[in-house]
Amino acid sequence: MIDAAWMRDALTRYAKRITEQREYLIELDSAIGDADHGANMDRGMQAVVVALADKPGNTPAEVLKTAATTLISKVGGAAGPLYGTALLRASIAVGDQQTLDGAATVTALVAARDGIVARGKAEIGDKTMVDAWEPAVLAAQDAAATNSPVKEILSLAAQAAEQGAEGTIPLIARKGRASYLGERSAGHQDPGATSSAMFLRALADTAAENSGAAT
Amino acid sequence: MIDAAWMRDALTRYAKRITEQREYLIELDSAIGDADHGANMDRGMQAVVVALADKPGNTPAEVLKTAATTLISKVGGAAGPLYGTALLRASIAVGDQQTLDGAATVTALVAARDGIVARGKAEIGDKTMVDAWEPAVLAAQDAAATNSPVKEILSLAAQAAEQGAEGTIPLIARKGRASYLGERSAGHQDPGATSSAMFLRALADTAAENSGAAT
Amino acid sequence: MKKIINDPNTVVQDSLRGFAAAHADLVQVHYDPDFVTRVTPKTGKVGVISGGGSGHEPLHAGFVGTGMLDAAVPGAVFTSPTPDPILAATQAADSGAGVLHIVKNYTGDVLNFETAAELASAEGVEVRAVIVDDDVAVKDSLYTAGRRGVGGTVLLEKIVGSAAERGDDLLAVTELAERVNANVRSMGAALSSCTVPHAGKPTFELADNEIEIGIGIHGEPGRQRVNLVPADELVPMLLDPIVDDLPFASGDNVLLFVNGMGGTPLIELYLAYGIAEKQLADRGITVERRLVGNYITSLEMQGFSISVLKLDDELRELWDAPVNTPALRWGV
Amino acid sequence: MKKIINDPNTVVQDSLRGFAAAHADLVQVHYDPDFVTRVTPKTGKVGVISGGGSGHEPLHAGFVGTGMLDAAVPGAVFTSPTPDPILAATQAADSGAGVLHIVKNYTGDVLNFETAAELASAEGVEVRAVIVDDDVAVKDSLYTAGRRGVGGTVLLEKIVGSAAERGDDLLAVTELAERVNANVRSMGAALSSCTVPHAGKPTFELADNEIEIGIGIHGEPGRQRVNLVPADELVPMLLDPIVDDLPFASGDNVLLFVNGMGGTPLIELYLAYGIAEKQLADRGITVERRLVGNYITSLEMQGFSISVLKLDDELRELWDAPVNTPALRWGV
Ligand SMILES: Nc1ncnc2c1ncn2[C@@H]1O[C@H](COP(=O)(O)OP(=O)(O)O)[C@@H](O)[C@H]1O
Ligand SMILES: Nc1ncnc2c1ncn2[C@@H]1O[C@H](COP(=O)(O)OP(=O)(O)O)[C@@H](O)[C@H]1O
Ligand SMILES: [Mg+2]
Ligand SMILES: [Mg+2]
Ligand SMILES: [Mg+2]
Ligand SMILES: [Mg+2]
Question: What are the C-alpha distances in Å from B152 to residues B157, B205, D59, D282?
Answer without folding.
Answer: 8, 11, 50, 69
